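Input set for joint prediction.
Command: fold jointly, output tokens.
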Amino acid sequence: MKNKIKLALCQISSKREDKETNLQKIEKQTLKAKQQGADLAIFPEMSLTGYVVLDQVYELAEPVPGPSVARIEALAKKTGMHVVYGMPELSEKTRGTIYNTAVLVGPKGFIGKYRKMYLPTHSVFEEKRYFRTGYEPAAFQTEIGNLGLTICYDVFFPEVFRLARLKGAQLIVCISASPAVRRGYFEILTAARALENTAFLAYVNLAGVEDGLQFWGGSRLVLPTGDVAAKAKYDLEDFVVCDVDFGDLKTAETFVPTLRDLRSELFDKLKTYSEQF
Amino acid sequence: MEQVNLTPAVLEIDFSEAQTRICRFIKEYVQNAGFKGIVLGLSGGVDSSTVAALSSLAIGGENVLGLIMPEKETFNQKDIDDAKTVAEIFHLETQVCDLTNVVEAFFKGIPAFDAQDRLCKGNIKARARMICLYYYANKHNRIVCGSSDKSETLMGYFTKWGDAAADIAPILDLYKTQVRKLALHLGLPKKLALRPSTPGLWPDQLAEVELEIKFETLDLILYGLERFISPLDIADQLGVEAALVEKVKRRWLSNEHKRRLPLPPKIGFRTVGNDFRLPRHNY
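tokens >
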């Protein structure tokens, strides 16, 4: 496993309902990332289809693995890159059940997926109308480190990140489609999730406007200390390559030993009280 | 229990940020929809002046056409002068379309026309302006940019299918007092930004007189209702009669029909305006 990796925060805007255009954009950006020495290219939530697709999601969803994953697998093989991106996933066992999914692909093919656990259904968000919630936290051991996967609104729920971390993730990827009115929350919470778990956190948000919803970009790499090591532009498409040195984890974990200090018995109480309030 | 403190400060927003967001929204819509520009009604009032300024800043004044649409009964040279001032500052084209003959033809052509009913008569004027705007939009491959604000829209203080008819509504999420501040931020003349609002349906019509409330108070009441504060708490905090807040609330709720597509009965699998939900980018 590599101790140092480079990752590319590929902050794109997607063309809605146009998977081919978006796949081409992902391919182009991944090649650019490769040229700049990156090991991992990360794309936003639902970047394959666009975020505000409403009922069209039933036409756009695909199994994972499936045709679009196959395109990304070919890209990963060709470039030797790892790629994370988001898409609506059609359940293989039913015909109308869809998940909001993050996909991880590596040079040897499909590695794993994460189905969003917390689906925002309030304000401008209607995710529970369309998606089934996921149940499994995601952490995958790869040649470039142990990568956790999370999606957007999950960031408001520390347990999703903690589960990924305890499952082994050292770099937690959070792909997102967050509109501008929420920028302040995400800037605080991404730092908090990294710091409380002493993990690297790569946050990659959409840019652009979909049905009046303006995504704020601002993708970033947060260090295990909570410091922001690299940051993309607000609002606009951007591409930022940055370094992760997993050697920094030891310093962070010993300086603020949150993992050492975890008390498992409190989680029983958390379960009890969360069922009662 | 902690609650929102209803003072004018709650309506203070970052107007630079608002300008950026609105301009990006306008530019993205016009570009992605493949239109050549914008047409908008230019009345000389704060709402249309602000929307004209934002449109010009977003896509360039040469791509924005402001229609000045006077008619005999409400003719006011000052409105026209103010509209032209805005056009000069923000370098947009203008076209004067005198609608006197158009509205009089409607008056004559409607057998049941009642000249004394100024509301029904005035609504014809608002709808005639809409027809004129959409003519230019069709003819020149432009979109119609609306100038409805949040205060008047929540109050239903507009003509159904008249002044609210548009393709985009850039200031619809700003209360009137916020629009005035944005206007000043954009560099519109103070006298224009602070000018009393009128829908221009009949002579000397004034929004605050008809609504029987100052926008400074109305906006705070609406802000409170938007945040689920009870009418009693709102009245208490603002030092106004509870009946006034209840009246605003009733008016807000009873005008929902003006803010939506026509209500259909549910019959099919997916129903337009109900559970048929499509993204708005396939223009």
